[in-house]
Design goal:
- By secondary structure, the protein is mainly alpha-helical.
- It has one domain (5-160).
- It has helices at residues 5-29, 38-42, 48-52, 60-80, 84-102, 118-131, 140-145, 148-151, 157-160; strands spanning 103-104, 107-108, 110-114.
- The protein has a three-stranded antiparallel beta sheet with strand order 1-2-3.
- Strand 1 and strand 2 (107-108) form a beta hairpin.
- Helix 1 (5-29) runs antiparallel to helix 4 and helix 4 (60-80) crosses helix 5 (84-102).
- The longest helix has 25 residues, at 5-29.
- The chain is globular, with a radius of gyration of 17 Å.
């Protein structure tokens, strides 16, 4: 944990901006009835065979649900600082998946991004939030960690520690 006011400000700033990123994506997915991941995943190039499975009629609704509500839950978790380490870890996994899905080796998304793009930057920011225990800075993780039911439960402690 940090004592610097500047560092605390940066942690909260990064946590809120990443929360906004996920919540904004969710707002276009959860509240739109015709959203599906199929269009996006069918256009993958470098790792097309790995992503094709998720576009099958059986998997597409499941994948779409997980993406929609994954964005929503990660965003809310980061916004409130609740289970931040868990949600940031899932966010990192999503960012790596999106990075691979956008890839047309060696370019990512377009010819302006050679190997690296914003997905890896977001993954780095989320890693920083995990490292700095961002949920303890103006978040619910710090408050919950001190509650007896969390302190006494070995399964709950790692979620907010």
């Amino acid at each position: 944990m940090t004592n610097s006011t500047t560092e605390k400000f940066l942690i909260v700033f990064f946590r809120f901006t990443m929360a906004w990123t996920f919540l904004y994506a969710a707002s276009h997915q959860v509240f739109v009835h015709d959203f599906s991941v199929v269009g996006f995943l069918k256009s993958t190039k470098t790792f097309h065979d790995q992503f094709a499975f998720f576009t099958t009629p059986t998997m597409a609704p499941i994948t779409t649900f997980l993406v929609e509500y994954g964005h929503l839950l990660i965003g809310l978790s980061l916004l409130f600082g609740l289970m931040t380490r868990v949600s940031a870890a899932f966010g990192i996994a999503l960012m790596f998946i999106y990075w691979m899905a956008h890839m047309d080796w060696p370019f990512v998304e377009n010819s302006n991004n050679l190997i690296f793009d914003y997905h890896l930057v977001y993954a780095g920011v989320l890693s920083y939030l995990i490292y700095k225990h961002a949920g303890h800075v103006l978040g619910l993780d710090g408050w919950l960690e001190n509650r007896r039911f969390v302190r006494d439960n070995a399964l709950l402690r790692p979620l907010v520690a």
